[in-house]
Design brief:
With 454 residues, the chain is α+β, with helices and mostly antiparallel strands. The chain is built from five helices and 21 strands. A hairpin with a 4-residue loop joins strand 16 and strand 17.
Length: 454
């Protein structure tokens, strides 16, 4: 029996009338995956759009908040600080750097040679004229003084004897007992002895002065500096170093310089008999040390600097001015009366003029040109404004003519007063009331359920 070359194929009679449906294809799953991807993409886009919307709205809110903050929350008006123009008096000052200079500075030295036996002052002590500062060994000079006294007494006795002989010779001459030459010789002897006595008196006075010089005294009132010689040392006569230095503190002077341009103003005031006031201030110009007056001007101008030196005198009762100290000197030349005074901070300047911002009745600013007459650093006397007007002192950055402004309140307002203290009865009443309120609050609260958070 012949074999079928295709054993797996069915005969035609076995083939059914309706063929079996074909196996499902792979296209539908692919379409589902694409649809999911599109949905995810749309969700991402929607989320991004939502985030962008939130960010834009928040940025707008921040910008609005910044805008309100920048405008001070005053509806577009710029906050400023202001001051009112006042009318009053202001002094015109000349300011310069000065040096405190004592009227007298003495280097006390010994006038005689000897051993320094005593020092009777303390370093930094205030001494007065005539106080003994130190003592030199006086014994050698006392001996010389005694010798001078003895020599004077001997020569005075010789003079007395010569005068007695002269009287005798005059009587004998009248009786023609002696020649005239002998009388003339006796007269010359008397004159010689008189000269010797005068010489002895001078030597005695010199010896007395040397004895006095052994006690070194203060020639002025002042403050003693540091000691330069210790007791036991041999002190030379008229030494350059000295044994002490004394400076007068009361009164004391300040020397400073002013420009040539101010000489006529100062001299005219002094010639009129006016007392020019000078304030001595600390180096940082924050503290006033003393107040004095102009004593004199120098007699010539320093051509290298174009200035002249001025000496002002101060009583210095509290010793705030110290010798060789640097101070700021303020010389009051004249006082301007009835001038318009504004804070110096309100004055603005450009290349040509000085001006201020004036706040009008509509709360808008307007520029106003001013002329500055004088200034003391804090306030200035000006022309161009009227008393009672308001000028801007701070917040100039965005100001123009017609800009609306609002005046800030000063920062240094008084703090609110602390609450009054309760007495014992009020504290007891307050404790009772608080306890009753707490009890009512506990009764009003429901009991918490088990497991609920408190």
């Amino acid at each position: 029996m012949p074999m079928n070359p295709h054993p797996q194929s069915l005969p035609a009679a076995d083939v059914p009338d309706h063929p079996d449906p074909q196996p499902p294809s792979r296209n539908p799953p692919r379409r589902r995956h694409r649809w999911v991807a599109w949905v995810v993409a749309l969700c991402i886009l929607a989320g991004g759009a939502y985030l962008l919307t939130r960010q834009s709205s928040s940025s707008q809110q921040q910008q609005q908040a910044k805008g309100k903050k920048g405008k001070g929350g005053y509806g577009g008006a710029i906050p400023i600080s202001a001051a009112t123009v006042a009318k009053g008096n202001m002094g015109e000052y000349i300011e310069a750097l000065g040096t405190v200079t004592p009227v007298y500075t003495i280097t006390v030295a010994s006038r005689v040679v000897g051993t320094l036996t005593e020092v009777r002052y303390k370093e930094g002590q205030i001494v007065h004229k005539g106080d003994v500062l130190a003592v030199i060994d006086p014994r050698p000079y006392t001996a010389v003084y005694i010798q001078a006294q003895g020599q004077l007494q001997r020569d005075q006795a010789l003079l007395e004897n010569a005068r007695v002989d002269l009287n005798r010779y005059q009587s004998a001459y009248e009786q023609h007992a002696i020649p005239q030459q002998q009388l003339a010789t006796q007269v010359a002897t008397v004159h010689q002895d008189e000269g010797t006595v005068k010489l002895d008196e001078g030597n005695l006075d010199a010896a007395k002065v040397n004895v006095d010089y052994t006690q070194i005294t203060s020639p002025i009132d002042g403050r003693v500096g540091l000691r330069t010689v210790d007791p036991g040392n041999i002190v030379p006569a008229n030494g350059t170093t000295g044994i002490a230095t004394i400076t007068q503190l009361q009164p004391i002077t300040v020397i400073f310089t002013i420009a040539v341009d101010y000489i006529s103003d100062v001299v005219s005031q002094m010639r009129a008999g006016h007392k020019l006031t000078v304030d001595a201030r600390s180096r940082d110009d924050q503290t006033e040390l003393a107040q004095g007056s102009v004593l004199t001007l120098d007699n010539q101008i320093d051509t290298s600097t174009g200035t002249v030196r001025v000496r002002a005198i101060f009583a210095n009762k509290d010793n705030k001015l110290f010798p060789n100290e640097f101070v700021n000197a303020k010389l009051l030349v004249r006082t301007l009366t009835g001038v318009n005074i504004i804070p110096t901070a309100s004055i603005q300047r450009n290349n040509e003029i000085s001006f201020v911002y004036v706040v009008n009745a509509n709360k808008a600013v307007q520029t106003r040109d001013v002329n500055v007459a004088t200034s003391d650093g804090t306030n200035a006397a000006v022309t161009g404004v009227s008393p009672g007007e308001t000028v801007v002192t701070d917040g100039f950055d965005k100001l123009q003519d017609g800009t609306k402004v609002v005046i800030r309140k000063p920062a240094n307002q008084k703090a609110p007063a602390p609450p009054p203290q309760l007495n014992q009865q009020q504290r007891n009443k307050q404790t009772t009331t608080q306890g009753n309120a707490n009890q009512q609050l506990n009764n009003a609260q429901p009991n918490p359920q088990p497991g609920s958070k408190k």
